[in-house]
């Protein structure tokens, strides 16, 4: 005869989906506003993707505008700028992935080793603050610091005799990617480390105590306990980062690359959509390029998730 506990579990398993939702009505009610917002701002606008296959006219509307098939996709792929745009997009995205993605993890691990709480909170605060500044302010700050007339970088290099005359840093394409990545790193490293600090805080402290009693050094505890414990979180964010490979940036590139001479190294898919599609009122072309980027992003996200599933951690 089955025990009462087993029979109760069996009864729970036999519950239908509607019964489970009804039993959690208060929790399900809380997610309704979020579902409505996602539907309105994420799913309804997908209707506009139809314009990618049309010669869209504002006055004729969606259904009255003539259909042109894949004309705008072919125009983008066949344009002289296509290779340059894809090169810049992929290169900048990979640089951000290689340099910026691991930086918050390293910062979180370093902060976790600080035992003086006041100093730790001070470092956390000053590293978080740049995230809350808009790119307009950050671009202005970077422009002032790299100014050829009174920029602090030029003044420092001149005072140390490292250069003989001021350098116009934001007018030299060879330096632009380094400036872009450095600005993004400074702005986001602190805020991005919050998730990893939270993951580290959830690790059972008894694991560290046991490792310490066994003679494990702080580095070994970091390598054998901390890193494996936060690995699932790291993998999830890595999957999302790979899926966003073609999102090389928009605000930062648009504001830092105001000098036309930098367009050869700063023009990416998003800025191309803005300059050629939006400013020139070529809405169908802009939609086609955006849809092109979205489809590739979905493929990359699915592939990254499939690879991550082998390690036992994935989004689905």
Query: How many strand segments?
Result: 0
Largest sheet features: none
**Count of DSSP helices?**
17
Would you tell me the structural class of the helices and strands? mainly alpha
Strand content: under 5%
**The CATH topology of the largest domain is what?**
MetI-like fold
CATH architecture of the largest domain: Orthogonal Bundle
CA radius of gyration: 26 Å
Roughly how much helix do the residues carry, as a percent range?
Answer: 55-70%
Shape: flat
**Helix/strand order, N-terminal first:** HHHHHHHHHHHHHHHHH
CATH class designation of the largest domain = Mainly Alpha
CATH superfamily descriptor of the largest domain: MetI-like
Low-confidence parts: 1-6
Distance between the termini: 38 Å
- Global mean pLDDT: 89
Question: How many separate domains make up the residues?
Answer: 2
């Amino acid at each position: 005869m089955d025990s009462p506990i087993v029979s109760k579990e069996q009864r729970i398993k036999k519950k239908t989906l509607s019964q489970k939702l009804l039993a959690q009505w208060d929790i399900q009610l809380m997610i309704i506003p979020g579902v409505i917002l996602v539907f309105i701002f994420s799913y309804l606008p997908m209707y506009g993707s139809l314009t990618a296959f049309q010669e869209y006219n504002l006055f004729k509307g969606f259904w009255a505008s003539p259909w042109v098939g894949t004309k705008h996709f072919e125009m983008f792929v066949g344009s002289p700028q296509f290779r340059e745009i894809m090169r810049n997009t992929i290169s900048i995205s990979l640089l951000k992935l290689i340099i910026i993605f691991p930086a918050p993890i390293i910062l979180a691990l370093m902060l976790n080793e600080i035992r003086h709480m006041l100093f730790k909170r001070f470092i956390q605060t000053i590293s978080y603050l740049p995230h809350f500044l808009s790119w307009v302010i950050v671009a202005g700050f970077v422009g002032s610091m790299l100014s050829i007339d009174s920029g602090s970088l030029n003044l420092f290099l001149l005072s140390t005799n490292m250069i003989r005359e001021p350098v116009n840093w934001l007018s030299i394409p060879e330096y632009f990617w380094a400036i872009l990545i450095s600005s993004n790193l400074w702005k986001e490293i602190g805020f991005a480390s919050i998730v990893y600090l939270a993951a580290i805080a959830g690790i059972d402290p008894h694991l560290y105590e046991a490792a310490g009693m066994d003679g494990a050094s702080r580095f070994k505890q970091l390598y054998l306990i901390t890193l494996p414990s936060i690995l699932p979180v790291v993998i999830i964010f890595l999957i999302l980062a790979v899926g966003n490979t073609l999102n090389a940036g928009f605000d930062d590139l648009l504001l830092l690359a105001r000098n036309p001479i930098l367009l050869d190294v700063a023009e990416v898919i998003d800025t191309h959509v803005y300059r050629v599609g939006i400013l020139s009122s070529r809405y169908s072309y802009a939609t086609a390029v955006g849809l092109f980027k979205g489809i590739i992003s979905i493929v990359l996200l699915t592939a990254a998730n499939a690879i991550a599933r082998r390690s036992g951690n994935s989004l689905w």
